[in-house]
Amino acid sequence: MPFRAVLLDRDGVINRLVYHQDAGIIDSPFTRAQFRLLPRVPEAIRLLNRLGLRVAIVSNQPGIAKGHLQPEMLEWFDRTLLAQIESAGGHIDRILYCLHHPEAIVPSLRRRCHCRKPQTGLLEKAAAELKVSLSECYMVGDGIPDLLAGTRAGCRTVFVRKWKCEICQIKEARHVHPALVAEDLWHAAKLIRQECAAAGPLLPAGRSLVCC
Ligand SMILES: [Mg+2]
Ligand SMILES: [Zn+2]
Fold first, then answer.
1. Low-confidence residues of the chain, pLDDT below 70?
2. How far is the CA of 25 from the centre of ligand 2 (A)?
3. Ligand 2 centroid vs 77 CA: distance in angstroms?
4. Rounded to the nearest 10 degrees, how much is the dihedral formed by the CA atoms of 151, 153, 155, 156?
């Protein structure tokens, strides 16, 4: 089965996670100063583009629901990551977020939804918008919910390992067996390139593969 798209988690795959000292938690960035792309992410996305794969972000972002940030800040993060990726010649086709949380303090976002990973709604929406089937997608994430959602949706899963605690969790998490394990998104993109090369050409006619 040739692959046609890569679905990416955001925090811990594209941008750094942040240690919020006040709350003692590792979480998404909440401020502009906290938002930083991880090394070689734009290059990794450009590589996936050049393999002829569509690329979408599918991410749980309950920060607004929990009162950590305003919608404008999330939009600023989007613009910043898109600008940095595009300036390196990469392209993101879609960004899809689940903004809900079952214990949200913002009433309109307090919901048990079908889009919050490990549910599959966000992945289904991305595949529909990219006009691909979920079995033609990789799901790349650094968390168990990413891998569970990817497995349930029938994607090929790639675990980007960053946090030791997640490695411990993954050993214990039942039914979670990532197809590939990568150090970071750049490594994941190279593993995907290997698989795609082994599976045969999937580039549309007229597009050439440019060596990174
Ligand atoms: Mg993550
Ligand atoms: Zn949701």
1. 1, 162-174, 200-212
2. 22
3. 19
4. 0
Q: Which residues contact 72 (CB under 8 A, 6 or more apart)?
A: none
Note the ligand closest to the C-alpha atom of 26: 1
- Token look-up 């440019």 returns 210
Distance 202 CA to ligand 2 centre (A): 33
Give percent of the chain above pLDDT 90: 76
Cα(165) to centroid of ligand 1, in Å?
13
| Class of residue 179 by CB neighbours under 10 A (exposed 0-12, middle 13-18, buried 19+) | middle
What digits encode the pLDDT tens for the residues 82-141? 999 999 999 999 999 999 999 999 999 999 999 999 999 999 999 999 999 999 999 999
Nearest to 138 by CA among 147, 41, 19: 147
d(CA 47, CA 34): 26
Spatial distance between the Cα atoms of 24 and 11, rounded to a whole number of angstroms: 17
Specify the pTM. 0.87
How far, in Å, from the CA of 193 to the mean position of ligand 1? 22
pLDDT of the residue at 209 = 40
